[in-house]
Design goal:
Blueprint (H helix, E strand, L loop, with lengths): L5 H16 L29 E5 L3 H7 L1 H9 L6 E5 H16 L7 H21 L4 H14 L4
Antiparallel strand pairs: 1-2
Helix pairs in contact: 2-3, 4-5
The structure holds zinc ion (ZN) (2 copies).
């Protein structure tokens, strides 16, 4: 077993604190078991190992900022909040989230957090739909199609 990093330990502390504070009880169905039969949701990836459950709206961060509103939601791994991704695409997603998170004001309101949540969900879905295919490939195909449509 590798030693846990500071970040992992802090994560576990936070989750434990929320579970205690909000009297959270594990639901009878453990969604984490589903992972074994899933694959990365990134189009064109399909990796089946090192899979992570990613919260599309980064509810973990939101729960850190406003636990009364978001902690229970985070802990419950709501199916609509979750996508399965491999390690690489998980880090990619969090990298893509960064500029939006930096844009948050010091003491964001609930409305501002909800806005962020929606934006992040959208960033996530758009990215996962994109797949490995390069953008210009699609464009050239489209251009080709529209050219053939130009018949009189
Ligand atoms: Zn994530
Ligand atoms: Zn992947």
């Amino acid at each position: 077993m590798k030693q846990k990093s500071e970040a992992e330990l802090a994560y576990e502390r936070n989750v434990l604190e929320w579970k205690k504070k909000y009297n959270w009880v594990q639901p009878p169905f453990d969604p984490s078991r589903v992972i074994a039969v899933k694959k990365c949701g990134m189009r064109g990836c399909g990796a089946k190992t090192k899979l992570h459950r990613h919260h599309r709206g980064h509810e973990y961060l939101l729960a850190r900022i406003m636990p009364d509103v978001y902690a229970i939601r985070y802990l419950s791994f709501h199916p609509d909040d979750i996508v399965i991704v491999c390690q690489k695409h998980h880090s990619d997603l969090h990298r893509l989230y960064m500029p939006y998170i930096y844009d948050l004001p010091d003491a964001p309101t609930h409305a501002e957090l909800e806005d962020l949540r929606m934006v992040l969900r959208n960033v996530c879905d758009t990215y996962l739909r994109g797949g490995k295919k390069k953008k210009h490939d699609k464009t050239s195909k489209k251009q080709h199609r529209s050219r053939t449509n130009l018949r009189p």
